[in-house]
Fold this sequence. Notes:
Elements: E1 2-10, E2 13-22, E3 25-31, E4 40-46, E5 48-54, H1 68-72, H2 78-85, H3 88-104, E6 107-114, H4 117-127, E7 131-135, H5 144-151, E8 156-159, H6 167-179, E9 183-188, H7 196-201, E10 206-209, H8 215-224, E11 228-230, H9 232-236, H10 244-249, E12 254-256, E13 259-260, H11 268-281, H12 288-302, E14 316-320, H13 326-330, E15 337-341
Parallel strand pairs: 1-4, 5-6, 5-13, 6-7, 7-8, 8-9, 9-10, 10-11, 11-12
Antiparallel strand pairs: 1-2, 2-3, 4-14, 14-15
Amino acid sequence: MEYLSGLVYTRGGFAEGYVAIEDGRVSEVSEGACPGRPSAEGVIVPGLVNGHTHAADGGLRIPPGMPLEDLVAPPDGLKHRYLRETPAEVLKGSMREYARTSAENGISVFVDFREGGEEGCRMLRSVSDRAVILGRPVSPEYDPCEIDGILSVADGIGLPSVSDVPPAYLEAVADHVRRERRMLALHVSERVREDIDTVLSLDPSFVVHMTEASDGDILKCAEAEVPIVACVRSNALFGRVPPLARMFETGADVAMGTDNAMLCSPDMRAEAGAFARVLSCQGGDPRDALDALLAGGRKILYRQTEIGLAAGNEADLAVVEGGKDPLTDLTSCARRIRRIGI
């Protein structure tokens, strides 16, 4: 039996207590004094979910002042040229290092928009079993064989902005993914505001960014129960700020992601700290950052309505040094973090 002691994130919120682990599963979550010597103490939370990443581009060095569109717009933005021209072994090395760093930072799963079609998905799958892979097709036209090939490896499809691809292509891919009952996600309103009705007609599992979205766009996502993954640190590099306070005010499910490896490290505590600061500046509650950090990612992946540690759960946990104030402890990169379990 292994014990963890401290401030435990349960389905009712944080409580002083302990977690017992046996045979790879949580066997007990209780308040009060720990009955045995704990192997770790601090803030005890489920393993973190990084809701949006691009793990392969970590080796790219970006020229100062490059506009966002020149960097990421398909098919010939600098990032896409880099991914096409870089040897596969170099890209695999970058992804392997990204997965290792993610685990060190308490991240149990990262949701990667994997460029390069089926082969790109196979590269990531070969170096990490903790990635949820959303593959991006290579062909500019809908190819059902290509989509089937991607879905033979990946967990779903991740598409660029609706502004970057023809509507007929989007609809065909979305229909294919629905038939296979797999995940579909898109970048939305990252550089310019995009038509949210078009986006929601595709029935996405979640959308990413929404920095240029209107209040009405956000409300429609909330009403359709389509979660939003925001990437505060990467957006800030290009002078963009997602309307986080409005997202929470409308009741939208909000998760967080660290976006491109070339832009930001896979550190969810740094992302949560940035979330909290933006929420404060927008008149929101900075503690909503904890909901996005601890619950948002699990909602988009597992459709859980109750998030928190409970007996019977897989022992996939993180323990963060501290234990007095969750917001301070979970948004400080100076606090040590330890993965427990898988």
